[in-house]
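Structure (tokenized):
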């Protein structure tokens, strides 16, 4: 039986929110089989649990935000991406503020935290959402076109193409494909950082956003160059960060997908729209388990390797 996974022990992190600039503490805890991933706002007078789901996403401006009632958690996608990359099914995430800490702007710090706690197999079958026919969402036309698509695939692979009118971004790799079965999430994707432009950061700060942003947690560019002293971590770091984000956004469906994801200029909003379109078409997916690990797609049978 291909088993569900949780943590062996709890682990903690402290950081600041990318947009809020607020100090925030995270505590990642093991959870029972079939719990799913649940964020807990423990700073509120009465703690509120927010289980992840496509429907729990209530804001997709600049990040993915999940809510339950008036309780919100912003910028969940990097931590969710790490959970997807390591195949974690069940987890409680206690958080003391409204936004997940940005840490270094990638998911590598979250991967390190999860590995430090250890990954434990549970006595319950891992449940997948298997896509059985293509589902696509599109917006705009011509130069404004963007789309995201899921198609049947015995495994999980993602391809993403970016299109920025910026000399630095345009000089790097514009399209990335990552297959969980043949690639290594920690090595190939996890270190890709979020990025922004100085002119946009100034405007966002004037509107009370990006208050925690800096060159220690993002790639920052002016009109001509990357301002970070150490430069880029990958030749195609911008496109790889879009894959990282997409993995986090798609894992908000609540279970790992068996599908091929293909996107052009997509973002948090279109990724969530794609999940909702999938779930609305009952003949386009099914929940499956694997009693025989040999029948499971590559990349899912063994817990991910550490660094």
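Design, position by position:
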């Amino acid at each position: 039986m291909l088993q569900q996974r949780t943590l062996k022990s709890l682990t903690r992190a402290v950081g600041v929110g990318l947009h809020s600039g607020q100090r925030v503490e995270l505590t990642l805890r093991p959870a029972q089989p079939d719990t799913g991933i649940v964020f807990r706002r423990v700073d509120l007078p009465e703690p509120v649990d927010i289980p992840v789901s496509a429907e729990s996403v209530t804001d997709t401006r600049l990040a993915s935000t999940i809510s339950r009632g008036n309780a919100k958690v912003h910028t969940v996608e990097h931590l969710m991406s790490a959970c997807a990359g390591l195949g974690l099914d069940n987890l409680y995430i206690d958080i003391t503020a409204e936004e997940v800490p940005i840490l270094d702007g990638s998911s590598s710090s979250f991967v390190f935290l999860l590995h430090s706690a250890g990954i434990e197999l549970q006595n319950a079958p891992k449940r997948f959402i298997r896509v059985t026919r293509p589902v696509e969402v599109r917006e705009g036309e011509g130069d404004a076109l963007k789309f995201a698509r899921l198609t049947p695939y015995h495994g999980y692979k993602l391809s993403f193409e970016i299109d920025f009118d910026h000399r630095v971004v345009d000089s790097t790799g514009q399209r990335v494909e990552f297959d969980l079965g043949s690639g290594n999430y920690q090595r190939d994707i996890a270190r890709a950082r979020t990025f922004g432009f100085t002119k946009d950061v100034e405007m966002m700060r004037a509107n009370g956003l990006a208050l925690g942003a800096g060159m220690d947690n993002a790639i920052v560019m002016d009109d001509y160059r990357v301002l970070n002293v150490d430069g880029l971590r990958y030749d195609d770091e911008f496109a790889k960060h879009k894959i990282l984000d997409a993995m986090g956004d798609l894992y908000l469906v609540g279970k790992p997908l068996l599908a091929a994801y293909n996107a052009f200029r997509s973002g948090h909003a279109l990724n969530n729209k794609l999940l909702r379109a999938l779930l609305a078409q009952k003949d386009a997916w099914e929940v499956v388990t694997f009693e025989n690990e040999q029948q499971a797609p590559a990349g899912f049978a063994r817990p991910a390797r550490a660094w």
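Reviewer-requested clarification: The chain has a mean pLDDT of 92. DSSP finds seven helices and 19 strands in the chain.
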